[in-house]
């Protein structure tokens, strides 16, 4: 990682570490080092620096709600807003626990895109009718209910499709079986 | 407060009726009073009216927010008639208009 005039640029190893952590943030420095053929002390230093500079924002848990016995649906709302009030709409939407992601998009009309979860269609409609539509500045809402998730990936992996460490992970697994 | 004036009052933005065409699809029309509701019934498309009528949304709002159990019951009767399209729009508008005019007559005369 190089820092020039507060602009941070990551090198190939940094990206590979990020990719490895996105696949499994629980792995130890030694495991990551072994995966990338680098000393664990190097991994430790790189991760610490990326944490200090806010490149690694946090470590979180991806919960499989279905396995946890929760029934839910996911929907994507496209909300057309009055441009003067769109920031406020986005802020208020972000405060709801069941709204997972909120984006403002550049298009002919100012659009807010938000991902929301609900128990069922009735719960989803009730939330939109009573909590989203009444927000000042909301002009129209179009909602699409997700029927199947095909991909969900972190950005570091998405930006670096060539940095595949999956084959290296498989190789380590084979080596482990051989010994 | 007179029951008629209570029913005809303008409600808060959060209590207004928001018109949808289907689950989660808000069409940008809302009504914060019986008078506005009457106007919007003429403006919104029949698809939205059918969506709300057969979910029981209209009678629920009229009863729970405006506080007019009598009108809610009339709307419920309309629901049982399985109307659709312009016929539904006309009948709903007529039902609301009759009730609106009755309530207006019941309002105390201003001096």
Overall spatial form of chain A = extended
Number of domains of chain B: 1
Total individual domains of chain A:
2
CA gyration radius of chain A, whole angstroms: 21 Å
Helix proportion of chain A: 40-55%
The largest β sheet of chain B comes out as: 2 strands, antiparallel
**CA radius of gyration of chain B:** 14 Å
The rough form of chain B would be described as: globular
CATH architecture of the largest domain in chain A: 2-Layer Sandwich
Poorly predicted parts of chain A: none
Class computed from helices, strands and strand pairing of chain A: alpha+beta
Order of helices and strands of chain A: EEHHHEHEEHEHH
Strand order across the largest sheet of chain B = 1-2
Annotation, overall tally of beta strands of chain A: 6
Q: Tell me, rounded to a whole number, the average pLDDT of chain B.
A: 93
Count of discrete alpha- or pi-helical segments spanning 4 or more residues of chain A? 7
Largest sheet of chain A: 4 strands, antiparallel
Structural class of chain B comes to mainly alpha
Mean pLDDT rating of chain A: 87
N-to-C CA distance of chain A: 36 Å
- CATH first level of the largest domain in chain A: which class? Alpha Beta
How does this model look, in words?
- The complex is a heterodimer of chains A (179) and B (111).
- Chain A has two domains: 60 residues, Winged helix-like DNA-binding domain superfamily/Winged helix DNA-binding domain (Arc Repressor Mutant, subunit A), CATH 1.10.10.10; 73 residues, Alpha-Beta Plaits (2-Layer Sandwich), CATH 3.30.70.920.
- In chain A, 40% of the residues lie in helices and 21% in strands.
- Chain A is built from seven helices and six strands; from the N terminus they run ββαααβαββαβαα.
- In chain A, helix 2 packs across helix 3.
- Chain A is extended and about 60 Å long.
- With 111 residues, chain B is mainly α.
- Chain B has one domain.
- Chain B has six helices and two strands.
- In chain B, strands 1-2 form a two-stranded antiparallel ribbon.
- The longest helix of chain B has 22 residues.
- Chain B is globular.
- Chains A and B meet through strand 3, helix 5 and strand 6 of A and strand 2 of B.
């Amino acid at each position: 990682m190089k820092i020039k005039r507060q602009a941070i640029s990551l090198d190939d190893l940094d990206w590979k570490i990020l990719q490895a952590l996105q696949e499994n943030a629980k792995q130890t420095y030694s495991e990551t080092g072994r995966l990338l053929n680098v000393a664990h002390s190097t991994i430790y230093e790189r991760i610490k620096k990326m944490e200090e500079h806010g490149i690694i924002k946090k470590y979180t848990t991806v919960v499989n709600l279905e396995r946890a016995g929760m029934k839910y649906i996911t929907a994507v709302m496209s909300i057309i807003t009055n441009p003067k009030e769109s920031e406020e709409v986005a802020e208020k939407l972000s405060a709801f626990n069941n709204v997972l992601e909120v984006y403002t998009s550049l298009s002919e009309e100012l659009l807010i895109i938000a991902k929301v979860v609900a128990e069922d269609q009735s719960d989803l409609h009730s939330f939109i009718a009573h909590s989203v539509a009444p927000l000042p500045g909301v002009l129209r809402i179009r909602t699409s209910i997700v029927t199947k998730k095909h991909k969900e990936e972190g950005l570091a992996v998405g930006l670096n499709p060539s940095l595949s460490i999956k084959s290296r992970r498989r190789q380590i697994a084979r080596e482990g079986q051989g010994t | 407060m007179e029951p008629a004036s209570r029913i005809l009052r303008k409600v808060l933005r959060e209590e207004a009726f928001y018109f949808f065409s289907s689950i989660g699809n808000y069409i940008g029309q809302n009504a914060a009073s019986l008078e506005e509701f009457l106007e919007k019934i003429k403006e919104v498309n029949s698809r939205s009216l059918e969506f709300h009528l057969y979910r029981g949304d209209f009678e629920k709002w009229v009863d729970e927010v405006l506080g007019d159990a009598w009108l809610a019951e009339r709307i419920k009767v309309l629901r049982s008639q399985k109307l659709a399209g312009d016929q539904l729009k006309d009948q709903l508008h007529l039902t609301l208009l009759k009730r609106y005019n009755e309530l207006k007559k019941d309002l105390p005369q201003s001096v």
